[in-house]
Design goal:
CATH class of the domain at 424-469 and 632-778: Alpha Beta
Shape: globular
Distance between the termini: 62 Å
Helix content: 25-40%
CATH architecture of the domain at 424-469 and 632-778: 2-Layer Sandwich
CATH topology of the domain at 424-469 and 632-778: Aldehyde Oxidoreductase, domain 4
CATH superfamily of the domain at 424-469 and 632-778: Aldehyde oxidase/xanthine dehydrogenase, molybdopterin binding domain
Strand order of the largest sheet: 3-6-1-15-12-13-14
């Protein structure tokens, strides 16, 4: 890969301020919600009050007569417009669609029925109140297990793929996912102990601070310019093109700050196509911005019902594992969804010779869900890591030692997204992370004890979990259903600075900063010399969705390649200027040195100015890179908790959160990701859960008041650390971290509560009421 010696890195491995820090702290950063265009109209959407119904009649006459209303559209206006939310990148595999831009058959409370565009948002909102809709209400189902029953209400009769329609049976999206390794039944016969349990995961929402917003502007040449929240501007362009039946080249999507994502914008947002359609219809810019309540009508993590059976020997060796995974997708979903991803993660979770996974995805009459920080992996980790602690308890074995015996390791076959995405593990610091985390938390003192003698009803315990996630979706042979290739352009300026042009979204994690760091290291300039330029689909190379913790690993390598080729150009000029062979030159700290005589040097700026004076052109290069591996990054989490056995309240006292990320490009950002992932994992375990009314399916907690996010006051003392590792396939030895930082946190909470109280809860979230019920069942309340 033509890497530099990582021991001599000048820029990588050091802390740098984020590229957008000044704009964000001064309020100068442009978010879509802040933007206004001349002549811009405002759109609002009338949403269904019913979880399942057919629209019989719409009377919008009064709304159309309201001064300031420019257009009203219903399903009749867009009946031929299927909504493409995750357009296929393989021409042989058509995009799968099960929704329209607006619906005649509504399938959840909040589904899209009528759209209004007006001179102001206030006029549009008033117009909504003037519309009368007559519905034929249908039976609805909200529970994923009940939805899979043959007698359940039918939510979708068929879905569209290409020009064909495919029937849906028992609300199941496509065929069940099956993964197999070895002989599971023989493994169970061999086992000394068999443990079977059922787990139910929660349904948290992404809850970014920035609310979804979209602006679409028609251009004179029939093109459409778009500013929207997106984790991939090129896939968004394709989705809009398919939804509107427009050539992709007619659509220009801007890369813009989104104010947080966590997977919420990995699909086209449900109302972006509405905004685009109305802009083309009116010939004027149109803005559509969700309220906080409307944000809950799109997105959230999939709830799952998981049955897990494990066979283990007396010494703790796991010989067989079988999982049945029932995944709830909500009212709409464009692919078999996370059950396929979950199957791959399950097959990689434990070093076990005999494994079987059967996964099924079902529709329910609840808001459509999407990927959320881990896409199936948090659910797998909750079940498997809880099961490991249960096994350790039954065997009288140290839970850490049980994991050490069975965890995946260097050389193992790793499935990174689903069966077609895989690699052999070439770097693994998981064992080191577990040992160091155990030392820092005081693992030997993990058993239940009374921390406050004057309050004997408060019990303390320590629990742990370990985990991983992929760094991208690359594989040696390209997968048929998912892409992982990136693009980057580097252009040197005559003053020695460099423009870095990316399509990759930075939704607050600092990934763009890390990519700029990689480019600076490869060029031999300082971090401050890299200018991350504004870009759009017209000016940038293709980039897939930013997901699967792929930014640093995949996009970073594209930037490194572009910088490498650019460096070769000006190094050739430096050789011509100095008369020194290029093999005897090295670029670092803005200068080019003679390796054999470091006293001899010339600045990069001098070389570029000399080349410009001779009309040699611009040192620039555009590189595309396809990742050929998906190396996992690893995380070990140790938590100390106090449980009030009188109230069931859980307090996280201390958290140790360590990771193997390969070579950390920007260490402070990695530590920030670990803390953020810990925060999200604790919320997943304890409080974050979207609640639906059992009789209507309406979301009951759509906002910061009722949807309980943990605040800084709720966070424990946190100690993060990184282990020494290097990934040979990553840019300067780097791997990802964003999603892996969350995966083991929730099971660590449950395991710590068990260590404190001796009771275990098998469903999420872990509320005080559930703790009290478990204590009562044990006879301790």
């Amino acid at each position: 890969m033509n890497k530099k010696n990582n021991k001599n890195l000048q820029v990588v491995g050091k802390d740098h301020p984020r590229v957008d820090v000044q704009a964000k702290v001064t309020g100068a950063c442009d978010y879509v919600s802040d933007m206004t265009l001349p002549g811009m109209l405002h759109c609002k959407v009338l949403r269904s009050p019913h979880a399942h119904a057919m629209v019989n009649r719409i009377d919008s006459s009064k709304a159309e007569q309201l001064p300031g209303v420019r257009a009203v559209i219903t399903h009749q206006d867009v009946k031929d417009c299927w909504l493409s939310r995750a357009a296929s990148n393989n021409s042989a595999i058509p995009s799968v669609m099960d929704a329209h831009i607006l619906e005649e058959h509504v399938r959840f409370v909040g589904d899209r029925v009528v759209a209004i565009v007006a001179d102001t948002a206030e006029i549009a909102e008033e117009a909504l109140t003037l519309i009368n809709v007559d519905y034929d209400v249908l039976p609805a189902v909200f529970d994923i297990e009940k939805a899979a029953d043959p007698d359940a209400p039918v939510i979708h009769e068929s879905i569209k793929a290409g020009e064909d329609m495919f029937p849906i049976e028992y609300n199941t999206n496509f065929m069940p996912i099956e993964n197999h390794a070895g002989d599971v039944e023989s493994g169970f016969k061999q086992a000394d102990l068999i443990v079977e349990n059922e787990f139910r995961t929660g349904a948290p929402h992404h809850m970014p601070v920035g609310r979804p917003a979209c602006i679409c502007k028609p251009l004179p040449d029939g093109r459409l310019e778009v500013w929207t929240h997106s984790q991939g501007i090129h896939p968004t362009r394709k989705c809009l093109g398919e939804s509107l039946n427009m050539p992709f080249g007619k659509i220009k999507v801007h890369r813009i700050s989104v104010g947080g994502a966590f997977g919420l914008y990995i699909y086209l947002h449900m109302t972006d196509a509405v905004c685009a359609f109305l802009a083309m219809k009116t010939g004027l810019p149109v803005k559509l911005e969700d309220t906080r309540e409307e944000m809950f009508y799109d997105g959230g993590r999939h709830p799952a019902q998981i049955r897990l059976k494990t066979g283990v020997m007396k010494d703790g060796t796991i010989v067989s594992m079988a999982m049945d995974f029932l995944d709830g997708i909500g009212a709409y979903g464009t692919i078999p969804d996370i059950s396929g991803l979950a199957g791959g993660f399950f097959m990689s979770k434990i070093h076990c010779p005999n494994m079987r996974f059967i996964g099924k995805t079902v529709y329910t009459n609840t808001p459509p869900l999407c990927a959320m920080r881990g896409a199936g992996n948090p659910q797998i980790h909750f079940a498997v890591e809880s099961q490991l602690d249960i096994i350790a308890d039954k065997l009288g074995m140290d839970p850490l030692e049980l994991r050490s015996l069975n965890n995946i390791r260097t050389g193992d076959h790793y499935i990174g997204q689903a069966e077609e995405v895989f690699c052999n593990i070439s770097s693994c610091g998981l064992e080191e992370a577990m040992r160091e985390g155990a030392r820092r938390i005081g693992w030997d003192d993990r058993h239940s004890r009374i921390p406050y003698p004057e309050k004997p009803w408060i019990k303390r315990g320590i629990g742990m979990a370990s985990g991983f996630h992929s760094s991208g979706a690359g594989t040696e042979v390209p997968a048929s259903y998912i892409s992982d290739y990136s693009g980057a352009m580097v252009k040197m300026n005559e003053d020695g600075s460099a423009n870095l042009i990316l399509a990759a979204t930075d939704f607050g994690s600092g990934n763009t900063t890390a990519i700029a760091t990689i480019a600076a290291e490869e060029l031999g300039v300082c971090y401050e010399d890299i200018i991350v330029s504004e870009s759009d689909t017209d000016t940038s190379l293709y980039e897939f969705w930013i997901h699967a913790s792929r930014s640093v690993y995949s996009v970073g390598e594209a930037a490194r390649k572009a910088a490498q080729k650019t460096r070769e150009i000006f190094m050739d000029w430096a050789s011509e200027l100095t008369g020194i062979s290029q093999d005897d030159l090295v670029a670092k700290n803005r200068r080019i040195y003679q390796v054999s005589n470091p006293e001899q040097s010339v600045s990069i700026r001098e070389v570029l100015e000399w080349a410009q004076s001779l009309n040699k052109g611009t040192a620039a290069f555009a590189a595309s890179h396809r990742a050929t591996s998906c190396p996992p990054h690893f995380v070990a989490t140790f938590l100390m908790v106090d449980v009030d056995t009188r109230t069931g309240e859980i307090k996280i006292v201390k958290a140790i959160h360590g990771a193997d990320v390969g070579v950390p490009i920007n260490p402070s950002a990695v530590h920030g990701q670990l803390i953020g992932g810990l925060h999200m994992g604790l919320g997943y375990a304890l409080t974050e859960h979207v609640v639906y009314a059992p009789d209507t399916g309406k979301v009951l907690n759509p906002g910061f008041t009722d949807y309980k996010l943990l605040t800084p006051i709720d966070m424990p003392e946190v100690d993060t650390f990184l282990v020494d590792s290097e990934e040979p396939t990553g840019p300067f030895g780097a791997k990802g971290i964003g999603e892996g930082s969350t995966n083991p946190v929730a099971p660590a909470v449950y395991n710590a509560v068990f260590a404190a109280t001796g009771v275990r809860v098998f469903s999420m979230p872990l509320t005080p009421e559930k703790v009290l019920a478990a204590l009562s069942e044990k006879g301790e309340v």
